[in-house]
Request: fold
Amino acid sequence: MRLNSLLTDKKASILEKWFDVIIETYPPDTASFLKNRNNSFANPTGSTISQGIEDIFDELLRGLNREKTSQFLDDIVRIRAVQDFTPSQALSFIFPLKRIIREELAAEIAGKHLSDEILALESEIDGLALSSFDIYMKCREKIYDIKANEVKRSTFRLLQMANLINDTNGEEPDLEGSNNLKIKRGEVKK
Amino acid sequence: MATKFTAKPDELSKIDYKPPKKGWLDTPAEFKEHTFCWGAKAKNLNIVEFPNARDWSPAEEDWKLPENWQEIVLEGIKDRLGKYRSFKLFMDICVRCGACADKCHFFIGGGDPKNMPVLRAELLRSIYRKYFTASGKMLGKIAGARELTLDVLKEIWYYYYQCTECRRCSVFCPYGIDQAEITMVGRELMNLLGLNTDWISAPVANCYMKGNHLGLEPHTIINSMEFFLDDIETITGIKIKPTFNRKGAEILFVTPSGDLFADPGTYTAMGYLMLFHELGLDYTWSTYASEGGNFGLFTSNEMAKRLNAKIYAEAKRLGVKWIIGGECGHMWRVVNQYMDTWNGPADFLEEPVSPITGTIFENAKSTKMVHIAEFTADLIKNGKLKLDPGRNNHLKVTWHDSCNTARGMGILDEPRYVLRNVCNHFHEMPEDTIREKTFCCGSGTGLNASENMDLRMRGGFPRANAVKYVRNNYGVNMLANICAIDRATLKASMEYWVPDVSVCGLHELVGNALVMTGEKERTQDLRLEPLPEKEAKE
Reply:
């Protein structure tokens, strides 16, 4: 675990570089705003990315806890999934970590025969990228769910009034009578 | 024209992380899918006699513009510079200090620099300089001026339908420049070319013809209300019989039609019905003035005036004394800021006096329209309501200040006062995200369509981020507000960003807490869900 202690020592500078690389995927005027992380409510994107990558990095050092890591990745991916990025651009934030670590630890890697440990770490990072892909897809699917739900909500009452929905599950809608519409509004929410 | 997310395999391996460093003047707008609304349909524009009506699509290269479109826009600007001193001032006085730059929810959540309010305004200012100032005419680009080309027109359209006129930026502007009014003028110019959106122009046409955005006819409205009345009877054992279009009633009640049709607004409507019944209020609903909202405001000043006038025409027809307005957002911007100039003073009505408490609503002296949060807060202050806040104990509530009521008319403390009396668990979001600095829901001014969902999620992120904070720290599970668009769109925003937080109107909580004369012991809330302590007893 020699690599871990080296990474711990270099944590601050690795995170700083990683953060900068991610922020530079935004237009320059936006990047200068996102870099200011003083107020997480004024700059939720910058703050979330900053906190997220630190959490992810700590997990890498501890040995990945899939559930926790997934939540940290979700915080970042959820934002980038609705911003002006293609899917590959949205998830491009993971990979530079490998390059940054190699650059930061160049001398140590060359001198201390760390290639096995580096390989293991980089495989973990690749795993993060794959998890991010799952999360990205869930986010996009959620967007389509939300769209569908909005349509359902806006048409439900119209269907109800046209007497096309009733509460007799599995039975034909009652198109004759108009006064037996005792249903609960929550029933078609999901 | 619209970009699809399809990269070829060889492109995937060549990711350039850095965006091109070009000036904003030289970067034409790229129409991305899921960020813009569909174009207005000719039939809806024709109904209200808007010019250049035709079916068109923003995603197509050809917008089917009239040949003299440039002339129309420039004439339109000239006309408005003459008519509105505020517009002239806002075109001239910005010193580009940048105080507004990072205050827009679309910029904060999306990261597109053209959503910085200063830059959004510059899109139009650059045209103003080119054609209406000496320096712009002579110096051109050096003076920040540019030609009105087709690309520029499309750019203005794209970004002026990415502003919710929420006015958060104006709170921070040292000159008080109101970007909302610049956006309004920008949209008016687009409207001259028939370039409105379907999501706005259809409700306008419906409201003009039928009295509400959804196009509900009288029997449909009454039929819809029957469902609420049945549910209220199930919950309380009390059968309420409201009146419609009743001449001679003391008060006309007007609320957004969304409250009659879309959950969770419908629960708020149940709250109104229960409150007015308990008070024995002499009031009537109208199936003609059946819309508090005014999507006309998102097309042109004249259209907004025409729709607003319908409410007052109905008040006159019915012979009521004054009006109570329900939980709506931009309806109140209209009433508080514009109504009096357009259609006021409403001299045929009386200065509103609460028949229950005798309070005179002096702030509504001219418009004769009282906000229901003020009306209810006054009732509680005077001890006229019996309330059991424990019935809302299953809810940990936070308060979203709706832009229009908060920044547009200063309704900040009344709803909080009501909240504190009707529920026991209320937690404020962080200071910079509430009251005058409240973050927009991200979907106002007719941007609450479905096709622009990515844009809505970006715009909703700063608000959702603050909700997430109170969810994590205090276990908040309910986001209350007094705006129909908020109720509809924050639901979607929460679903994406903070899935375990629901959305409600203020009077849903009032309805839950209100102890009504002759009611049976309640076991359900207005959503017909079991009250927590009742569940525990069983």
Notes: The mean pLDDT of chain B is 94. The radius of gyration of chain B is 24 Å.
